[in-house]
Automatic annotation (TrEMBL):
Highest taxon, organism lineage: Archaea
InterPro entries for the chain: RDD (IPR010432)
RDD domain segment(s): 28-149
Location in the cell: Membrane
Protein's recorded name: RDD family protein
Sorted UniProt keywords: Membrane, Transmembrane, Transmembrane helix
Transmembrane segments: 32-53, 60-79, 111-132
Keyword Iron: no
Listed PANTHER family: SLR0254 PROTEIN
């Protein structure tokens, strides 16, 4: 079982309270697929939101649409992860969820912190940064996962596992 908080190999910080193993975070492809599913949901939600609140008759929709799309993306990720035990629709379909570094359900504040990139994730560069940081951390964490103290695990690996006392 991994006891590193951040970083890979022996460069990480020792965390004696960690119960999340590296194998439980081996869900990179599931995370990518969940992101694609979630993007589809966010796209539809943003499109409907714009049609309902802004009559698409002017150039206002293009600039405003991108701005509003970012906030819909943020609200979708934060709202679902904060209220649905670390899951979005994509994570639920792929059998993964976000948890704190000890393996417990994350707090709303942690969901808020890890959702900040959703405000800026409409470009390929943000996904490249996310993949690079996932490759460089022991628990495959994105930059804002490390800031929030969260990681993404296989939901099946957490299901029937006894909780540590404390």
């Amino acid at each position: 079982m991994s006891t590193h908080r951040m970083g890979s190999g022996d460069g990480g910080v020792h965390d004696p309270h960690s119960t999340v193993s590296r194998s439980e975070t081996d869900v990179v492809f599931e995370r990518i697929a969940a992101q694609v599913v979630d993007f589809g949901f966010v796209f539809v939600l943003a499109f409907v939101f714009i049609l309902v609140f802004f009559r698409p008759t002017s150039g206002l929709v293009s600039g405003t649409g991108i701005f509003l799309g970012a906030f819909v993306n943020f609200g979708y990720n934060f709202g679902l992860e904060a209220t649905w035990n670390g899951r979005t629709v994509g994570k639920w379909l792929l059998g993964i969820r976000a948890v704190d570094e000890s393996g417990r359900s994350m707090s709303a504040a942690q969901a808020l912190l890890r959702s900040i990139p959703a405000l800026f994730s409409f470009g390929w560069l943000s996904y490249l940064v996310a993949l690079a940081t996932m490759a460089s951390t022991d628990r495959r964490q994105r930059l804002f996962d490390t800031v929030a103290g969260t990681t993404v695990v296989s939901d099946a690996s957490r299901r029937n596992r006894p909780r540590a006392a404390g």
